[in-house]
């Protein structure tokens, strides 16, 4: 376990240096201020349009200026030059605050997630090695458990910092359930057909929550087959007991 934790922490630190660090800083700075930067770039050439207020039709107002005033209605009480100056200062302060926040959050997420991944992966490998006795026979079930866990870390990261799939938390939760089912099936040594039925139902749910356009009949078919397999396995286990 100590070896797995050490390997996970080293992997997390490496991931932070290579990708996780700058990607998190990017999410907490540029991505967060992207709309304000675009508004500043579009409004600055049309300063005379910023001076007007939203209201009567026929007034010469730039679309970007209208968006700026809708986004920050308090700016309507200020002159045009002050509005742009305040927007510039806001962008600078947001980026300045976002840099250390991105560094802290990035290193916290990578160390926790990779440390947990390394520890759990070591436990899984030891269980499989005792069960199968050789690396050649345990490598496939090991990958069966660790690959969904690795994808789960990626999806959690994207959901937290980039809000994938319209910020729908059920997408990540469904994939977490799928990864947990994979680990439960491997550790309890479920038959391959039973694990495959769980995977099929889980993948169908994940794809539906990810807004992948697949026919509903396909979902119904997958769920029915999975239910039949699970119920049949339960009845078989009851008879054997």
Q: What does the average pLDDT come to?
A: 81
Secondary-structure element order, N to C: HHHHHHHHH
Spatial separation of the terminal alpha carbons: 35 Å
Number of strands: 0
Q: State the share of residues found in helices, binned by percent.
A: over 70%
User: Which outline best applies?
Assistant: elongated
Please outline the major beta sheet. none
Low-confidence stretches: 46-61
Radius of gyration: 26 Å
As a percent range, the share of strand residues is under 5%
Quickly count the helices: 9
Account of the protein in words:
The protein is an all-alpha fold. Helix content is 81%, strand content 0%. It has helices spanning 2-28, 30-43, 47-50, 63-71, 80-132, 135-161, 169-187, 192-209, 216-240. It is elongated.
Give the helix/strand layout.
Blueprint: H1 2-28, H2 30-43, H3 47-50, H4 63-71, H5 80-132, H6 135-161, H7 169-187, H8 192-209, H9 216-240
Summarize, please:
By secondary structure, this protein is mainly alpha-helical. It has helices at 2-28, 30-43, 47-50, 63-71, 80-132, 135-161, 169-187, 192-209, 216-240.
List the keywords.
elongated; mainly alpha; single chain; 241 residues
């Amino acid at each position: 376990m100590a070896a797995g934790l050490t390997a996970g922490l080293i992997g997390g630190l490496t991931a932070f240096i290579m990708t996780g660090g700058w990607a998190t800083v990017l999410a907490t700075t540029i991505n967060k201020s992207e709309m304000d930067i675009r508004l500043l770039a579009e409004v600055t050439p049309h300063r005379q349009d910023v001076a007007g207020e939203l209201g009567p039709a026929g007034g010469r107002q730039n679309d970007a200026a209208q968006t700026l005033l809708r986004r920050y209605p308090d700016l309507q009480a200020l002159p045009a030059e002050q509005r742009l100056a305040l927007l510039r200062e806001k962008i600078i302060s947001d980026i300045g605050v976002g840099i250390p926040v991105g560094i802290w959050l990035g290193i916290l997420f990578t160390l926790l997630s990779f440390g947990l991944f390394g520890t759990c992966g070591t436990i899984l490998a030891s269980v499989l090695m005792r069960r199968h006795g050789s690396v050649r026979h345990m490598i496939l079930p090991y990958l069966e458990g660790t690959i969904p866990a690795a994808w789960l870390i990626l999806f959690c990261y994207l959901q937290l910092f980039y809000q994938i799939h319209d910020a729908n938390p059920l997408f990540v939760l469904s994939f977490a359930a799928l990864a947990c089912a994979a680990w439960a099936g491997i550790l309890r040594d479920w038959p391959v057909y039973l694990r495959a039925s769980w995977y099929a139902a889980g993948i169908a749910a994940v794809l539906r929550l990810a807004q992948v356009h697949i026919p509903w009949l396909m979902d119904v078919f997958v769920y029915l087959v999975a239910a039949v397999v699970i119920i049949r396995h339960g009845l078989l286990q009851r008879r054997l007991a």
